Amino acid sequence: MTGAKDYVLIVLGLMLYSLGFCAFILPHEVVIGGLSGVGTLVYFATRGMVPVAVTQYACNLVLLSFAFKIVGKTFVMRTIFGATVLSLCIGAVEGFFMGLGHPIIEDISMSAILGGILCGIGVGTVFIHNGSSGGTDIVAAMVSKVSNVSIGRTMIYTDMLIVMSSLFLPFEGTFQERLDVRVPLIVYGLIVTFVIAYMTDMIINTNRQATQFIIFSHKWAEIADRVNKEAQRGVTVLDGMGWYSKKPVKILMVWCRKIESVTIFRIVKSMDENAFITQANVNGVYGKGFDTMKVKMKKKKEEGVEQASR
């Protein structure tokens, strides 16, 4: 379920995406993947007559109408919210930045990379809070439901096709001149698309990354109490034995978010400066206070067929 806090952060993520796209990518006529890229194609093909936001929202609605029976009501409703907010945000700032008559950052390389970073952070923020901005996500979701092609591969193919389509935008000049102008923009479009994907993955993985602590201390009880109260994290106490001293010891195991690691260190150091402590980064900590396992369970019919075949 998506709570009020999630919706606020989804909106902030979409606003960040809109800023990165409209301020740093669109003014350089760089076509990126997704429906933002489709909107860019229509915008420049019509010489600014049809705003990016309008094309983007219309395409989202069309795709969702086809996807409703395939991907389910929950996905559709969540995507309608994200697509609506994104189109409103882009529509609100698109005219301002394009009306300036020149990009904020003249260097296309720096502008494109900065725009890609902002867009990626925005999309990653939306994803980790159970949101969806629509676009090629819808196509990928539909394809994955009816075939064995992965979502990631479908999105790559679709985005590359959109970026390559910028070669056919209206251009006054010879075909060679068209290539000289459009090919570099296509390269920038591909670079931005992959920067967005990379930043999105980094934001998602950073959010999921957790830290595991193993702590040895004669003040283990005091440390465990403070971790419970101050860090709001559970502690598992294990029995062990130091082989050198041949004495029993208590071992504390703690899992926390990576950003909470400093809090754990401070607690241990303040209680016992001689404590022996190890720290390890772990991915995929599931359970209360961490991530939820998203595993699609087999249907009863499938289980019955498997048992009968044995």
Strand numbers in spatial order across the main sheet: 2-3-1-4
The poorly predicted ranges are none
**Share in helix:** 55-70%
Mean pLDDT: 84
Net shape: elongated
> What is the alpha-carbon Rg in Å?
25 Å
Tell me how many strands there are: 4
Element-level helix/strand string: HHHHHHHHEHEEHEH
Largest sheet: 4 strands, antiparallel
| Count of helical stretches | 11
Q: How big a fraction of the residues is strand?
A: 5-15%
What is the CA–CA distance across the termini?
38 Å
Q: How would you classify the quaternary structure?
A: single chain
Class from secondary-structure proportions: alpha+beta
Salient structural properties:
about 300 residues; 11 helices; about 65% helix; elongated
Brief digest:
With 310 residues, the chain is an alpha+beta fold. It is built from eleven helices and four strands.
Account of the 3D structure:
- About 65% of the residues lie in helices and about 10% in strands.
- By secondary structure, it is α+β, with helices and mostly antiparallel strands.
- The longest helix is centred in the middle third of the chain and has 34 residues, at about 175-210.
- The two termini are about 40 Å apart.
- The mean pLDDT is about 85.
Helix and strand layout, with pairings?
Elements: H1 4-25, H2 34-45, H3 52-71, H4 73-99, H5 108-128, H6 136-146, H7 151-164, H8 175-208, E1 210-216, H9 220-231, E2 235-242, E3 247-257, H10 261-271, E4 276-282, H11 300-309
Antiparallel strand pairs: 1-3, 1-4, 2-3
